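Narrative progress, year one. The postdoctoral researcher (J.K.) led the effort to move from monomer predictions toward full complexes, under supervision of the PI. The following entry was the first complex the group processed end to end, covering 609 residues in total.
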Amino acid sequence: MRSVLTNEILKTFSKWRSSIAFIAIAVVVPLVHIAFYLQGEAAAKSLARGLTQDFFLLGNLLNGYFVTYVVLNTLWIHVPFLITLGAGDQLAGEATGGTFRLLLIRPVSRTRILLAKYLTTLLYTCAVVLFLGILSLVLGIALFGTGDVLVPGRTIVIIPEAEAPWRIGGALLLALWGMWTVASLAFLLSSLVENAIGPIVGTMAIIIVFYAIGNIPADLFRDIKPYLFTTYLSVWQQALEQSIDWHAVASSVLILGAFSVGFLAATWYIFVRKDILS
Amino acid sequence: MDSNVVLETAGLGKRFGERWAVRDLNLVVRKGEVFGFLGPNGAGKSTTIRMILSLVRPSTGEVNLFGKPLRKSRSEVLARVGGMVERPDFYLYLSARRNLEIISALQGDRSRGDLDTVLDIVGLLPRAGDRVKTYSHGMKQRLGIAQALLGFPDFLVLDEPTSGLDPQGIKEVRDLIRGLSVDRGMTIFLSSHLLHEIEQTATSMAIINNGNLVVQGPVTELLSKGEAAVRLEAWPAPEAEALVRNFPLVTGVRRNGDLIEFAIPRESTGSLNRALVEAGIEVRALVPRRSLEEYFLAITAGASEQGAPRTRRPLLRRVFTASRTGDAGTH
């Protein structure tokens, strides 16, 4: 198994396509930081809204944790897209390149090859999410220092500086868990077609449509909402509530995990039976 | 089971939707053979090869390799098989050596020390560090053969190994195949749509057309070198037999009642007929059966000139009946 996995990791990470995500992050994250550096004080104040009228806010509102929190909002659309770029190519890319004909005539079962590819996809997802988080934290703390994290929402949540590191870290890990589900979906779609465009567009379309359904305030859609995996992708925000609802976190994590396993099982079912005609 | 049988397909068939790409195929490849698998484009050669190498699941029947069913003993038997299916595709962004390393990791321990050897055999050692992206088609084709050789398998399956090569390259590949067969004792299965290709390298062959097996046997037996096998019905038969035996260029005369069978160059059939009639012999039927070569040229010509299946079918039926029952007409 190890050599099969090494193969897949080597292939994935020596592809130009795989570096797109890291280049995009390396461009966008510093841009956000520069924007905050130039205009951030005002932005942070406006996020605090009328709060300063009633309360007296002390300390450094614009800090590395806060900026990282802002950057984490790319987890809704941008990061899934970057992950899909890699995950959607994982199986379809071999079909496009005709290299399944090299790979699947060997004395290694399709199940093992599939698992190696899936683990590689998870590793890639992990690398993308952690790169985003760590780059943002390092850059943010270097530029803005540390401080309390102001989380705007229905109510303003303020997380004390002392709790910020593990709260942000926890948010990153929960985000990663959700992105694994996204990657698993792209991986599933990747097993169906012979071109990576389909899985990439397909995964993004599903995510966007599901977000829309989840946000339409009609009874019918409210009933569907619990069955959509996108509903639980926001689990990382739980780590940034004033007090963490561990029950909600656990159920989201379990449901997302079930979706991931389900997607993988479906991929396996399709892949071991698939006729390689590319 | 005969332990000399390397590959056996039993009732092998594959259906895509309504269309049968391969139907009830029974092939036997024995140890040490260079087996030519001949058929026009679209005859079902690649589908068959894909089933042999586990890329495609058969709709009917079974593939047995080394006496074991591929379905149940996949890893065990494929460890002894090397293959190249259709176009030689590789990870273009990696070097040839990296590509072979990846394949070798899957092929098993047996193949690890072989990288330089196989690259050397196909003459790619000097370019092994270059990305495959920079390779010409001929080089990719040779790399395709190199990857199939990793681990020096007992059974080598090559799908159109000379396609896209220049005459020099074709000769090299032909020599290589002969060398692998003779020096290393490999059993080799190769497909082609060119009869002369098979004729020059293979010891046994099978012809497939429209997914059906047409004929199978040793090459020398199947290709009676430009002669027509003729069936003659004449009366009185003993006189006719005597005349035929003494006629120039006639060989292999056999008589069974009123039926006489022999081989003669096609162009001589007319003058033989005249000679029989002039000798007062009543010729009831003189049927030259088409030789395999003519049959094959007919089906490939039909395939390339009148590609549509509808026009191909009547032609085929005509030729097929001709070669089987010999009612192509009398001379």
